[in-house]
Amino acid sequence: MGDRLTKLDWLKHGLRTLANDGPGGLKVGPMAAKLNVSRGSFYWHFQDIEDFRSELLQHWQETSTDQIIDALDARPGDPDRLRDLLHQAFDRQPRLDRAIRSWAAHDKYVAGIVAAVDERRIARVARLLVDAGMDTTRAAHRALFFYWAFLGQAAVVDQRHTSLPKEALNDIAHLFGGPD
Predict the structure, then answer these.
(1) What is the pLDDT of residues 56-70, one digit of tens each?
(2) Is residue 10 part of a domain?
(3) What is the per-residue burial (b if ≥16 Cβ within 10 Å, else e) of 16-34?
(4) Distance (Å) of CA 73 to CA 131, 172, 173
(5) Does the global pTM surpass 0.90?
(6) Which of 11, 107, 136, 139 can pair with 59 through a Cys bridge, CB separation 3.0 to 4.6 Å?
(7) How far apart are the C-alpha atoms of 84 and 141, rounded to whole Å?
(8) In terms of residue numbers, what domain contains 7?
(9) Is 70 contained in some domain?
(10) Is 141 a domain residue?
(11) How many domains are there within the chain?
(12) Inter-residue contact 10 to 45 (CB < 8 Å)
């Protein structure tokens, strides 16, 4: 890959490493070797491994939550936002989410970040449901149930049961989105 890696290159590699090897794989030497660069490349961008891990979690939050919410917010009044979010949420590789949550089970700092991300995601889904005409209590309950389903998908091991056709997701979005 060469010696001129950016901070973003390291963060992307860190997320891949986390997804594949878990938090124990986040070690400077092995990551640098896999990227075919010196350890100095890492230290050019990060003070130490803790700084890297902190920025890695921030990058995960930005790419898996903040950017998605910002894209939804850029489409106010669009009735397809919930459906599109459902497609995006369930059309992903859950290995990274499993790895982050596994890490959070053993690290209070990571657990705090994951809890904040969960809260923000659930609140945003509830807001979409309220925007679609649902009362706030029902929206909160459905948003939480939707999120449970999202998290549960990551626990499914058999690849035959990890995705649904687009039409099925559209049908499910309809179930969640109407004010009834």
Answers:
(1) 999 999 999 999 999
(2) yes
(3) ebbbeeebebbebeebbee
(4) 12, 22, 18
(5) no
(6) 11
(7) 20
(8) 1-55
(9) no
(10) yes
(11) 2
(12) yes
